[in-house]
Amino acid sequence: MPSSNSPSSFVIVANRLPVDRVPGPGGEEIWRRSPGGLVAALEPVMQAVDGAWVGWAGQPGMELAPFSEDGIRLLPVPLSAQEVQEYYEGFANDTIWPLYHDVISPPQFHREWWEAYVRVNRRFAERAAVAAAEGGTVWVHDYQLQLVPAMLRELRPDLTIGYFHHIPFPAHGLYAQLPWRNQVLEGLLGADVVGFQRAQDATNFLAAVKRRLRLEVKGSSVTVTHGGPRTVTARAFPISIDTTPYVELAARPDVRARAAEIREGLGNPRRILLGVDRLDYTKGIGHRIKAFGELLDQGRLRVEDVTLVQVASPSRERVDAYAQLRDEIELSVARINGDHDTVEHTAIRYLHQGYPREEMVALYLAADVMLVTALRDGMNLVAKEYVATRGDQRGVLVLSEFTGAADELRQAVLVNPHDIEGLKDAIMQAVEMPAREQSRRMRSLRRRVLDNDVNAWSRTFLAALEQARNDR
Ligand code: G6P
Q1: 343, 421: one domain
Q2: Is the CB–ligand 1 distance for residue 38 below 6 Å?
Q3: Ligand 1: which of 20, 166, 283, 380 to mutate, most ligand atoms within 8 Å of CB?
Q4: pLDDT class of 1 with cuts at 50, 70, 90
Q5: b/e per residue, 395-416, with b = 16+ CB within 10 A?
Q6: Model pTM above 0.85
Q7: Any idea which of 71-75, 123-127, 397-401, 434-438 has the lowest mean pLDDT?
Q8: Bridge partner residues of 308 (DSSP)
């Protein structure tokens, strides 16, 4: 492995490094691979090529020298406490996140947050410019870093630059609210290839580019005039998961035994329903709980027969909208449980915690019905994880139409989560679905997920980037 100072021909730039600082067995702090879609998606790619990863270590005020972990060279970008507040919690997660998720929560627009976003994006771009070898490839990720592609191109015109947007890109009518709408588009157009989850996201982006910047758009190509004519490709590359660990864990006897133990622990209900989400207002957790509560109220479901297990992992807790959401969800869970629990049975087993992958797979195996009811979601990898684990061809996926995954997973029970009556009917359909129909649908879902895993995704994106390099 080259020293951590030698430039790399392949560099990933993402807000977070793919590791967390956690207490080790002896009380000392150690690095551990962090959970989350982006990390899970990119780790196999990084280990296969000798890449470097530029990102934030997840704690304010931490200055760290470059280091290696699990075969990946990590180049930390420091953020001060104020920058965490203004760039990460503020502009990224309280302006862009709600705006791009169809203003489910009202976006906050603050000029100081924008200024911090520009400053921090420049720091990431400068770090990447130092890390990348002459003529190398840099792949920038997600909404926290939309200005990096253009900043990096300015510093290093020799590089081939890709950008992948993991979350939705909104329709122009919403996007137009952003006071810095032109700057963000110009930032993204610094890349040679701008990738989105769904065709609709790419269409929305291209429409915004045409309308706001008056650039020529033909199909998926934009001709950028600034700094000499250049072509940018914008199209969909739906992300997936690394299916191998899910398939393998699901076959392990100890994990299967754990799934049986989970069922037992819940009083062996006839059906277990499962929700797994970051505790985020985009995920439709409240809608799901409301529908489930009404089914119990109406006697269409009985607490002796069904339990909803809701894993809601803590997320962005210092952002007001998230703190409020937690209160709302916990109030409604407590009300439903108070009304319906018996001494032996619980309606909702609510877990405000994160779990290791083994435990998640055991939960997926224990679940007869997986509820993914997001109001808006770039992709939703949980849906794909559930499908990957069900080699037994059992289980039903209830999936919101407003997820990127719904474009691919057509054999799921598709729902509009805003329609509570429709959601209730979909839950009943899933609870009562005959084994033969479960297996017919699951077979088709699995084929889709297993044939289009994260390796296929990154190969396709990098091939498009290579094509862009050759076409220059
Ligand atoms: C989404 C985003 C990622 C982000 C993740 C976790 O999946 O697309 O960029 O890393 O959520 O959120 P956090 O704010 O904890 O990084």
Answers
A1: yes
A2: yes
A3: 166
A4: very low
A5: bbbbbbebbbbbebbebbbebe
A6: yes
A7: 71-75
A8: 273, 348
